[in-house]
Design a protein that fits this description.
The complex is a heterodimer of chains A (100) and B (281). Helices cover 0% and strands 52% of the residues of chain A. Chain A has strands at residues 21-29, 32-33, 38-42, 48-53, 59-64, 67-75, 78-86, 90-93, 96-97. In chain A, strands 1, 2, 5, 8 and 9 form a 5-stranded mixed beta sheet that branches. The relative contact order of chain A is 0.30. Chain B has 11 helices and 9 strands. Chain B has 2 domains: 3-140, Rhodanese-like domain (Oxidized Rhodanese, domain 1); 143-265, 3-Layer(aba) Sandwich (Oxidized Rhodanese, domain 1). The two termini of chain B are 26 Å apart. Chain B is globular, with a radius of gyration of 18 Å. Chain B has helices spanning 3-6, 10-15, 31-36, 62-72, 89-100, 112-118, 148-153, 166-170, 211-220, 238-249, 261-265, and strands at 7-8, 22-28, 43-46, 79-83, 106-109, 159-162, 194-195, 229-232, 255-257. Classes of the chains: A mainly beta (100), B alpha/beta (281). The interface between A and B is large, with 32 and 40 residues.
Chain lengths: 100, 281
Protein backbone atom coordinates (compact mmCIF):
# COMPACT_ATOMS: atom_id res chain seq x y z
CA UNK A 1 0.00 0.00 0.00
CA UNK A 2 1.18 3.46 -0.79
CA UNK A 3 2.22 5.39 2.27
CA UNK A 4 -0.01 8.39 2.08
CA UNK A 5 -2.04 10.82 0.14
CA UNK A 6 0.77 13.10 -0.90
CA UNK A 7 1.40 13.52 -4.56
CA UNK A 8 3.98 11.11 -5.92
CA UNK A 9 6.69 12.34 -8.19
CA UNK A 10 5.31 12.78 -11.69
CA UNK A 11 7.46 10.59 -13.89
CA UNK A 12 7.49 9.53 -17.49
CA UNK A 13 4.07 8.90 -19.05
CA UNK A 14 2.56 5.47 -18.52
CA UNK A 15 2.02 3.40 -21.63
CA UNK A 16 0.17 0.50 -20.00
CA UNK A 17 -2.46 1.47 -17.46
CA UNK A 18 -3.56 -2.08 -16.64
CA UNK A 19 -7.07 -1.84 -15.16
CA UNK A 20 -6.55 1.76 -14.03
CA UNK A 21 -8.22 4.78 -15.59
CA UNK A 22 -5.23 7.05 -16.14
CA UNK A 23 -5.54 10.71 -17.06
CA UNK A 24 -2.15 12.14 -17.95
CA UNK A 25 -0.47 14.78 -20.06
CA UNK A 26 1.80 17.78 -19.96
CA UNK A 27 1.53 21.41 -18.97
CA UNK A 28 3.04 23.94 -21.34
CA UNK A 29 3.35 27.67 -21.83
CA UNK A 30 3.80 28.88 -25.40
CA UNK A 31 4.75 25.36 -26.41
CA UNK A 32 7.41 24.88 -23.72
CA UNK A 33 6.83 22.31 -20.95
CA UNK A 34 6.22 23.87 -17.54
CA UNK A 35 7.48 22.13 -14.42
CA UNK A 36 6.30 23.04 -10.93
CA UNK A 37 2.74 23.82 -11.99
CA UNK A 38 -0.06 22.86 -9.59
CA UNK A 39 -2.32 20.59 -11.61
CA UNK A 40 -5.75 19.70 -10.27
CA UNK A 41 -8.32 17.22 -11.44
CA UNK A 42 -11.92 18.44 -11.20
CA UNK A 43 -14.86 16.10 -11.64
CA UNK A 44 -17.88 16.58 -13.90
CA UNK A 45 -19.46 19.00 -11.42
CA UNK A 46 -16.25 21.03 -11.07
CA UNK A 47 -15.46 19.50 -7.69
CA UNK A 48 -11.80 19.18 -6.70
CA UNK A 49 -10.62 15.58 -6.84
CA UNK A 50 -6.82 15.60 -6.73
CA UNK A 51 -3.76 17.76 -7.26
CA UNK A 52 -0.18 17.04 -8.29
CA UNK A 53 2.84 19.14 -9.19
CA UNK A 54 4.07 18.79 -12.78
CA UNK A 55 7.52 17.28 -13.28
CA UNK A 56 10.38 19.32 -14.77
CA UNK A 57 9.20 18.07 -18.17
CA UNK A 58 5.66 19.22 -17.46
CA UNK A 59 4.25 15.73 -16.87
CA UNK A 60 1.24 14.99 -14.67
CA UNK A 61 -0.80 11.86 -14.03
CA UNK A 62 -4.01 10.97 -12.23
CA UNK A 63 -5.63 7.66 -11.42
CA UNK A 64 -9.26 8.46 -12.00
CA UNK A 65 -12.54 6.72 -12.76
CA UNK A 66 -14.57 6.72 -15.98
CA UNK A 67 -16.22 10.07 -16.61
CA UNK A 68 -15.69 13.64 -17.72
CA UNK A 69 -12.87 15.52 -16.07
CA UNK A 70 -11.35 18.97 -16.12
CA UNK A 71 -7.61 19.34 -15.65
CA UNK A 72 -6.67 22.79 -14.37
CA UNK A 73 -3.10 24.08 -13.99
CA UNK A 74 -1.92 26.97 -11.85
CA UNK A 75 1.58 28.38 -12.18
CA UNK A 76 3.37 31.60 -11.34
CA UNK A 77 3.27 32.40 -15.05
CA UNK A 78 -0.47 31.89 -15.39
CA UNK A 79 -3.26 29.34 -15.47
CA UNK A 80 -5.21 27.22 -17.92
CA UNK A 81 -7.45 24.19 -18.18
CA UNK A 82 -8.61 21.46 -20.53
CA UNK A 83 -11.36 18.86 -20.62
CA UNK A 84 -10.95 15.11 -21.03
CA UNK A 85 -13.41 12.28 -21.27
CA UNK A 86 -12.22 8.97 -19.84
CA UNK A 87 -14.44 6.20 -21.16
CA UNK A 88 -12.83 3.35 -19.22
CA UNK A 89 -9.53 1.72 -18.22
CA UNK A 90 -6.53 2.89 -20.20
CA UNK A 91 -4.44 5.99 -20.74
CA UNK A 92 -6.33 9.20 -21.51
CA UNK A 93 -4.06 12.03 -22.60
CA UNK A 94 -4.80 15.73 -22.21
CA UNK A 95 -2.57 18.75 -22.83
CA UNK A 96 -2.93 21.89 -20.74
CA UNK A 97 -1.61 25.29 -21.81
CA UNK A 98 -1.13 28.03 -19.22
CA UNK A 99 -1.05 31.73 -19.93
CA UNK A 100 -1.25 34.93 -17.94
CA UNK B 1 -9.83 30.87 18.73
CA UNK B 2 -8.93 33.62 16.36
CA UNK B 3 -7.31 33.25 13.01
CA UNK B 4 -4.21 35.32 13.92
CA UNK B 5 -3.34 32.84 16.66
CA UNK B 6 -3.21 29.84 14.36
CA UNK B 7 -2.40 31.07 10.85
CA UNK B 8 0.38 33.26 9.49
CA UNK B 9 0.54 34.70 5.99
CA UNK B 10 3.33 34.14 3.50
CA UNK B 11 4.17 37.84 3.74
CA UNK B 12 4.50 37.70 7.53
CA UNK B 13 6.59 34.58 7.23
CA UNK B 14 9.03 36.11 4.78
CA UNK B 15 9.50 39.04 7.15
CA UNK B 16 10.13 36.71 10.08
CA UNK B 17 12.56 34.19 8.63
CA UNK B 18 15.31 35.47 10.92
CA UNK B 19 13.17 36.15 13.98
CA UNK B 20 14.61 34.40 17.05
CA UNK B 21 12.18 31.93 18.58
CA UNK B 22 10.35 31.30 15.30
CA UNK B 23 11.14 27.97 13.65
CA UNK B 24 9.86 27.11 10.18
CA UNK B 25 9.21 23.43 9.58
CA UNK B 26 8.39 21.84 6.23
CA UNK B 27 6.30 18.68 6.40
CA UNK B 28 6.02 16.64 3.24
CA UNK B 29 5.74 13.07 2.25
CA UNK B 30 7.77 13.89 -0.83
CA UNK B 31 11.04 14.80 0.84
CA UNK B 32 12.66 15.55 -2.50
CA UNK B 33 10.61 18.76 -2.50
CA UNK B 34 12.53 19.99 0.54
CA UNK B 35 15.88 18.93 -0.89
CA UNK B 36 15.19 20.79 -4.11
CA UNK B 37 14.40 24.00 -2.28
CA UNK B 38 12.80 25.03 0.99
CA UNK B 39 11.97 28.20 2.86
CA UNK B 40 15.35 29.59 4.01
CA UNK B 41 16.20 28.26 7.45
CA UNK B 42 13.35 25.76 7.58
CA UNK B 43 13.95 22.29 8.98
CA UNK B 44 12.16 19.23 7.68
CA UNK B 45 9.95 16.66 9.34
CA UNK B 46 9.13 13.53 7.36
CA UNK B 47 5.54 12.64 8.33
CA UNK B 48 6.00 8.95 7.59
CA UNK B 49 9.53 8.12 8.68
CA UNK B 50 9.62 10.47 11.64
CA UNK B 51 6.05 10.88 12.88
CA UNK B 52 4.83 7.28 12.48
CA UNK B 53 5.83 4.25 14.48
CA UNK B 54 7.93 2.11 12.14
CA UNK B 55 6.17 -1.14 13.12
CA UNK B 56 2.72 -0.59 14.62
CA UNK B 57 0.12 1.56 12.90
CA UNK B 58 0.34 4.45 15.31
CA UNK B 59 2.23 7.64 16.01
CA UNK B 60 5.62 8.01 17.55
CA UNK B 61 5.07 7.94 21.29
CA UNK B 62 5.66 10.80 23.66
CA UNK B 63 9.34 10.08 24.17
CA UNK B 64 9.80 9.57 20.46
CA UNK B 65 8.21 12.95 19.75
CA UNK B 66 10.47 14.55 22.37
CA UNK B 67 13.55 12.98 20.80
CA UNK B 68 12.48 14.05 17.31
CA UNK B 69 11.88 17.70 18.18
CA UNK B 70 15.02 17.85 20.32
CA UNK B 71 17.08 16.57 17.42
CA UNK B 72 15.46 19.09 15.06
CA UNK B 73 16.46 21.88 17.40
CA UNK B 74 12.92 22.87 18.40
CA UNK B 75 12.47 23.94 21.99
CA UNK B 76 9.36 24.33 24.14
CA UNK B 77 9.79 28.10 23.92
CA UNK B 78 9.80 28.22 20.13
CA UNK B 79 6.89 29.21 17.95
CA UNK B 80 6.67 26.60 15.22
CA UNK B 81 5.39 27.62 11.77
CA UNK B 82 4.42 24.59 9.72
CA UNK B 83 4.05 24.49 5.97
CA UNK B 84 4.15 21.90 3.21
CA UNK B 85 2.97 20.78 -0.18
CA UNK B 86 -0.42 19.36 -1.06
CA UNK B 87 -2.27 22.38 0.25
CA UNK B 88 -0.77 21.88 3.71
CA UNK B 89 -2.32 18.45 4.26
CA UNK B 90 0.67 17.04 6.06
CA UNK B 91 1.53 20.35 7.68
CA UNK B 92 -2.00 20.34 9.15
CA UNK B 93 -1.44 16.75 10.23
CA UNK B 94 1.78 17.78 11.98
CA UNK B 95 -0.01 20.78 13.50
CA UNK B 96 -2.52 18.38 15.04
CA UNK B 97 0.38 16.27 16.36
CA UNK B 98 1.99 19.28 17.99
CA UNK B 99 -1.32 20.09 19.68
CA UNK B 100 -1.81 16.45 20.60
CA UNK B 101 1.52 16.48 22.42
CA UNK B 102 0.80 19.80 24.08
CA UNK B 103 2.91 22.29 22.10
CA UNK B 104 0.56 25.26 21.79
CA UNK B 105 2.85 27.73 20.05
CA UNK B 106 2.29 26.32 16.59
CA UNK B 107 0.87 27.98 13.49
CA UNK B 108 0.21 27.07 9.90
CA UNK B 109 1.61 29.09 7.03
CA UNK B 110 -1.57 29.91 5.12
CA UNK B 111 -1.39 28.35 1.65
CA UNK B 112 1.77 26.40 2.43
CA UNK B 113 4.35 25.75 -0.20
CA UNK B 114 1.94 26.38 -3.05
CA UNK B 115 1.14 29.95 -2.03
CA UNK B 116 4.82 30.57 -1.32
CA UNK B 117 5.81 29.34 -4.78
CA UNK B 118 2.98 31.11 -6.60
CA UNK B 119 4.07 34.33 -4.91
CA UNK B 120 7.61 33.74 -6.16
CA UNK B 121 9.07 33.97 -2.65
CA UNK B 122 12.62 32.72 -1.97
CA UNK B 123 13.53 29.06 -1.62
CA UNK B 124 17.01 27.69 -1.10
CA UNK B 125 18.64 24.29 -0.79
CA UNK B 126 21.00 25.13 2.06
CA UNK B 127 21.45 22.46 4.67
CA UNK B 128 19.83 23.61 7.90
CA UNK B 129 21.13 22.52 11.26
CA UNK B 130 19.92 23.83 14.58
CA UNK B 131 21.51 23.10 17.95
CA UNK B 132 19.79 20.20 19.71
CA UNK B 133 17.32 20.99 22.48
CA UNK B 134 15.61 19.07 25.26
CA UNK B 135 12.02 19.28 24.13
CA UNK B 136 9.43 18.03 26.62
CA UNK B 137 6.06 16.76 25.36
CA UNK B 138 2.83 16.29 27.30
CA UNK B 139 0.66 13.19 27.38
CA UNK B 140 -1.52 12.97 24.26
CA UNK B 141 -4.55 15.24 24.43
CA UNK B 142 -7.16 12.67 23.52
CA UNK B 143 -9.88 15.31 23.39
CA UNK B 144 -8.81 15.89 19.77
CA UNK B 145 -8.20 12.26 18.73
CA UNK B 146 -10.95 9.73 17.97
CA UNK B 147 -10.57 5.96 17.94
CA UNK B 148 -12.68 3.41 16.09
CA UNK B 149 -15.11 2.37 18.84
CA UNK B 150 -15.95 5.99 19.47
CA UNK B 151 -16.56 6.46 15.76
CA UNK B 152 -18.97 3.52 15.62
CA UNK B 153 -20.80 4.95 18.64
CA UNK B 154 -20.98 8.33 16.91
CA UNK B 155 -23.11 7.03 14.04
CA UNK B 156 -26.31 9.04 14.12
CA UNK B 157 -25.24 10.72 17.35
CA UNK B 158 -22.41 13.08 16.44
CA UNK B 159 -21.43 14.95 13.32
CA UNK B 160 -19.29 12.66 11.20
CA UNK B 161 -17.55 14.64 8.50
CA UNK B 162 -16.06 12.66 5.67
CA UNK B 163 -13.64 15.03 3.96
CA UNK B 164 -12.67 12.80 1.04
CA UNK B 165 -13.71 13.50 -2.52
CA UNK B 166 -17.29 12.63 -3.53
CA UNK B 167 -16.12 9.56 -5.46
CA UNK B 168 -14.27 8.21 -2.44
CA UNK B 169 -17.30 8.95 -0.25
CA UNK B 170 -19.67 7.08 -2.54
CA UNK B 171 -17.35 4.10 -2.79
CA UNK B 172 -16.42 4.61 -6.43
CA UNK B 173 -12.77 5.27 -5.55
CA UNK B 174 -10.69 3.96 -2.64
CA UNK B 175 -7.96 6.59 -2.73
CA UNK B 176 -7.36 10.07 -4.08
CA UNK B 177 -7.22 10.14 -7.84
CA UNK B 178 -3.50 10.82 -8.11
CA UNK B 179 -2.70 7.49 -6.45
CA UNK B 180 -3.18 3.93 -7.65
CA UNK B 181 -6.44 2.58 -6.25
CA UNK B 182 -5.59 0.52 -3.22
CA UNK B 183 -6.41 0.75 0.45
CA UNK B 184 -9.34 -0.45 2.53
CA UNK B 185 -11.22 -3.70 1.91
CA UNK B 186 -14.49 -1.91 1.27
CA UNK B 187 -15.47 1.35 -0.39
CA UNK B 188 -18.04 3.73 0.99
CA UNK B 189 -18.46 5.82 4.10
CA UNK B 190 -19.57 5.67 7.72
CA UNK B 191 -23.38 5.82 7.91
CA UNK B 192 -24.78 9.25 8.79
CA UNK B 193 -21.56 10.99 7.70
CA UNK B 194 -21.84 14.15 5.68
CA UNK B 195 -19.43 14.65 2.79
CA UNK B 196 -17.60 17.95 2.85
CA UNK B 197 -14.41 17.49 0.83
CA UNK B 198 -11.42 19.14 2.54
CA UNK B 199 -10.93 21.22 -0.61
CA UNK B 200 -14.13 23.15 0.13
CA UNK B 201 -12.21 24.83 2.96
CA UNK B 202 -9.40 26.05 0.71
CA UNK B 203 -9.00 28.57 -2.05
CA UNK B 204 -7.29 27.55 -5.27
CA UNK B 205 -3.97 28.96 -4.03
CA UNK B 206 -4.13 26.74 -0.94
CA UNK B 207 -5.08 29.43 1.57
CA UNK B 208 -8.04 28.86 3.88
CA UNK B 209 -11.34 30.47 3.02
CA UNK B 210 -12.68 33.22 5.30
CA UNK B 211 -14.39 32.32 8.56
CA UNK B 212 -17.70 33.46 7.11
CA UNK B 213 -17.32 31.25 4.05
CA UNK B 214 -16.23 28.29 6.19
CA UNK B 215 -19.17 28.67 8.56
CA UNK B 216 -21.58 28.72 5.63
CA UNK B 217 -20.00 25.67 3.95
CA UNK B 218 -20.36 23.44 7.01
CA UNK B 219 -23.80 24.77 7.95
CA UNK B 220 -25.08 24.22 4.40
CA UNK B 221 -23.71 20.67 4.49
CA UNK B 222 -25.79 19.93 7.57
CA UNK B 223 -23.18 20.11 10.31
CA UNK B 224 -25.11 20.48 13.57
CA UNK B 225 -23.38 23.11 15.68
CA UNK B 226 -24.91 21.71 18.86
CA UNK B 227 -23.24 18.33 18.42
CA UNK B 228 -19.69 17.07 18.78
CA UNK B 229 -17.82 16.35 15.56
CA UNK B 230 -15.45 13.69 14.29
CA UNK B 231 -13.62 14.26 10.99
CA UNK B 232 -12.05 11.50 8.94
CA UNK B 233 -10.57 10.85 5.50
CA UNK B 234 -8.44 7.98 4.26
CA UNK B 235 -5.43 8.12 6.57
CA UNK B 236 -6.13 11.16 8.72
CA UNK B 237 -4.19 13.96 7.08
CA UNK B 238 -6.87 15.61 4.94
CA UNK B 239 -9.15 15.41 7.97
CA UNK B 240 -6.47 17.24 9.99
CA UNK B 241 -6.96 20.07 7.50
CA UNK B 242 -10.71 20.07 8.20
CA UNK B 243 -10.13 19.62 11.94
CA UNK B 244 -8.01 22.78 11.73
CA UNK B 245 -10.82 24.65 9.93
CA UNK B 246 -13.50 23.55 12.41
CA UNK B 247 -11.58 23.61 15.69
CA UNK B 248 -8.88 26.21 15.18
CA UNK B 249 -10.50 28.66 12.76
CA UNK B 250 -14.23 28.37 13.53
CA UNK B 251 -13.66 27.57 17.20
CA UNK B 252 -16.00 24.59 17.46
CA UNK B 253 -15.29 23.19 20.91
CA UNK B 254 -15.47 19.42 20.53
CA UNK B 255 -13.88 18.30 17.28
CA UNK B 256 -11.78 15.16 16.95
CA UNK B 257 -9.71 13.80 14.12
CA UNK B 258 -10.12 10.07 13.47
CA UNK B 259 -6.63 9.24 12.24
CA UNK B 260 -7.48 5.59 11.62
CA UNK B 261 -9.90 6.94 9.03
CA UNK B 262 -11.21 4.93 6.10
CA UNK B 263 -8.20 2.62 5.80
CA UNK B 264 -9.10 1.32 9.26
CA UNK B 265 -12.88 1.66 9.21
CA UNK B 266 -13.27 0.25 5.70
CA UNK B 267 -11.40 -2.89 6.74
CA UNK B 268 -13.21 -3.54 10.05
CA UNK B 269 -15.34 -6.68 10.23
CA UNK B 270 -18.98 -6.19 11.09
CA UNK B 271 -19.32 -2.41 11.15
CA UNK B 272 -22.03 -0.70 9.08
CA UNK B 273 -20.98 0.83 5.78
CA UNK B 274 -23.02 3.01 3.48
CA UNK B 275 -22.40 3.51 -0.21
CA UNK B 276 -23.74 6.06 -2.65
CA UNK B 277 -24.09 9.75 -2.10
CA UNK B 278 -25.79 9.51 1.31
CA UNK B 279 -26.29 12.92 2.84
CA UNK B 280 -23.68 14.39 0.55
CA UNK B 281 -23.81 18.13 0.35
Amino acid sequence: MSGGCAAPEQGAPLTDAGDQVVVQGTVSAQGTPVGGAFVRLLDGSGEFTAEVVSSPRGDFRFFAAPGSWTVRALHRSGSGQAEVSASGPGVHTVEVAVSA
Amino acid sequence: MSRENVLVSAAWSEENLQTPGVVFVEVDEDTSAYDGGHIPGAVRIDWKNELQDPVRRDFVDRSGFEALLSEKGISNDDTVVLYGGNNNWFAAYAYWYFKLYGHDAVKLLDGGRKKWELDGRPLDAEQVTRPATEFKAQEQDLSIRAFRDEVVDAIGAKNLVDVRSPDEFSGKLLAPAHLPQEAAQRGGHIPSAINVPWSKAANEDGTFKSDEELARIYADAGLDGARSTIAYCRIGERSSHTWFALHELLGHSDVKNYDGSWTEYGSLVGVPVETGTGKES
